[in-house]
Amino acid sequence: MTGTAVTGTAVPGTAVTGTRMRLISVSLLAGVALTVAGCSRLDMQDQPKYKPQRPSDFFADGRDGRPELDGTIARGQLNEDVAFYDGKDAAGKDIDAFPIAVDKAVIERGHQRYDIYCAPCHGRLGNGMGMIVQRGFKQPPSYHIERLRNAPVGHFYDVITNGYGAMLNYSQQIQVRDRWAIVAYIRVLQYSENASLNDLPLEARAKLPPANQAMSGEMKAAMGAEPMAAPDKDFMNFPAQPATPAGVPGAMGAGAATTYNAQPEKK
């Protein structure tokens, strides 16, 4: 055996091992290349876009937020029923007829919403003697005065929606249909204080006591459960002298009891 023959003889497994190493090297290089390519492309993370309320050099007014085009209406906010959404007729005047069907369910819903949002100022009876007023704040007019008894229903809807005088609007707190439900209940309150005996059916009139008969204890208890103004030791002569209990910011009036025992207001 010569040295040349030994040098040229292949070692078993050498070719296979070399091929495998080359494949591994190529795979590693490909993986590294893909990783580097992925890290260098930040299109999704750093794309050219504007964030809300940021300046822009592209638009003439320097704002990135663009105003809505004329006639733009969000889905579900067409509100083309002017009587329902605005309480107005085609001439822009307050409507005098309800744009919804008024039934017992609507009145009960209005009663519930009224007690939540309106009674604190206007009172449960609509007489303007709510608890806030009894604490010295400005008294709203009674719903039972002639001007408001004759006011169209659109007027009350407009006041709820847009506010009136010292009253802020409740368009955010009260949905459109609930505003009409409240107006329906206001009409119920007005009717309850101005109803005529002739409005009752004959079978209901037969159940009424004679005019000269004294009230029963049950009737007195029912009236006492809903007084015109709740009694309070803080009021010396209300409403001639509205009370101003300690700790009520913004209240005014000279009728507060001087002996009112309250905790000092926190600074």
Secondary structure: elements and pairs:
Blueprint: H1 3-8, H2 14-40, H3 82-86, H4 104-117, H5 119-122, H6 131-134, H7 146-149, H8 153-162, H9 176-194, H10 202-205, H11 217-224
Helix pairs in contact: 4-9, 8-9
Characterization of the model:
The protein has a domain at 93-194: Cytochrome Bc1 Complex, Chain D, domain 2, CATH 1.10.760.10. It is mainly α. It is elongated and about 120 Å long. Helix 4 packs across helix 9 and helix 8 packs across helix 9. The relative contact order is 0.08. It contains 11 helices and no strands. The chain starts with a helix and ends in a 43-residue tail after the last helix.
List keywords for this structure.
267 residues, mainly alpha, Cytochrome Bc1 Complex, Chain D, domain 2, disordered N terminus, disordered C terminus
Number of strands: 0
- One letter per element, helices H and strands E, the order comes to HHHHHHHHHHH
Beta content comes to under 5%
Structural class: mainly alpha
The largest sheet is: none
Number of distinct helices: 11
CATH architecture of the domain at 93-194: Orthogonal Bundle
Average pLDDT, rounded to a whole number, is 78
- The third-level CATH topology of the domain at 93-194 is Cytochrome Bc1 Complex, Chain D, domain 2
Q: Which radius of gyration do the C-alpha atoms yield? A: 39 Å
**Oligomeric description of these chains:** single chain
The unreliable regions are 1-8, 228-236, 242-267
The helix content, as a percent range, equals: 25-40%
CATH superfamily of the domain at 93-194: Cytochrome c-like domain
